[in-house]
Amino acid sequence: xxxxxxxxxxxxxxxxxxxxxxxxxxxxxxxxxxxxxxxxxxxxxxxxxxxxxxxxxxxxxxxxxxxxxxxxxxxxxxxxxxxxxxxxxxxxxxxxxxxxxxxxxxxxxxxxxxxxxxxxxxxxxxxxxxxxxxxxxxxxxxxxxxxxxxxxxxxxxxxxxxxxxxxxxxxxxxxxxxxxxxxxxxxxxxxxxxxxxxxxxxxxxxxxxxxxxxxxxxxxxxxxxxxxxxxxxxxxxxxxxxxxxxxxx
Length: 249
Ligand code: NAP
Prior knowledge:
By secondary structure, this protein is of the alpha/beta class. The protein has a single domain (8-240), classed as Rossmann fold, CATH 3.40.50. 49% of the residues lie in helices and 15% in strands. The chain is built from 9 helices and 7 strands. It has helices at residues 17-28, 41-55, 69-83, 106-134, 146-149, 155-175, 193-196, 200-208, 218-229; strands spanning 8-11, 32-37, 59-63, 88-91, 137-142, 180-187, 240-243. The protein has a 7-stranded parallel sheet, sandwiched between helices. Strand 1 (8-11), helix 1 and strand 2 (32-37) form a beta-alpha-beta unit. Helix 1 (17-28) crosses helix 9 and helix 4 (106-134) packs parallel to helix 6 (155-175). The longest helix has 29 residues, at 106-134. NADP nicotinamide-adenine-dinucleotide phosphate (NAP) is lined by residues 12-19, 36-40, 65-67, 92-95, 115-116, 142, 144, 187, 189-190, 192-195.
């Protein structure tokens, strides 16, 4: 079943990890894919070619810093010029700069807030004109369970992810009357490069706390996004869907 046939999805940070997994599942379901990355030029080029060859949809990667307001505006205009429209926006690009507050620099705070939270404002604002004109759209913000629970050593990241949830609910209220939906996903422990750097003991501790007793895959998150992007969820907005193996209930 092609759940996104003929739609165009803009996914930030899809050169690897969760974003890449979403792009793959969306392309498989018939969506054209515009995706961004920060610095992985070669990886992005290879992925662009692989995806369009495999699924016969239009795919284009853009090097664009999600934290940069003007770059986000230019990106949305370029995607509309290249693809004709935007139906789904996934604010997925994100980073961590973990350390206890005692040692956290202003730069580490700003980098995380700007890349994870300000980017969500940037891209949503940049795509708004198109969504309002179409009187349709689905925005999905990649938060984290850490935004719900907090985590020692991640105050910057937790604040950015909690902020995304507040922003999501506000957008659902502002845009619902125009048939534009906005939801968040809160992944738990997903096996990507972001989590690969954790040491084995920390990983085991996380997994022990998960009722399903495993880390999540990028497909686990992508399938939840597929639901929220598609017409299967036309009466769902303002929600946060935890994709965490039951770690947070
Ligand atoms: P990842 O493997 O580190 O990939 C991050 C992606 O974001 C890459 O494509 C990277 O591009 C891109 N990116 C980073 N900074 C950017 C910027 N300023 N502008 C545009 N793109 C940028 O991360 P991930 O694990 O897939 O995580 C994806 C999202 O899920 C993040 O928001 C993260 O917070 C969230 N999340 C992850 C987990 C987890 O367990 N992995 C759990 C909860 C939430 P380059 O390749 O060019 O660097």
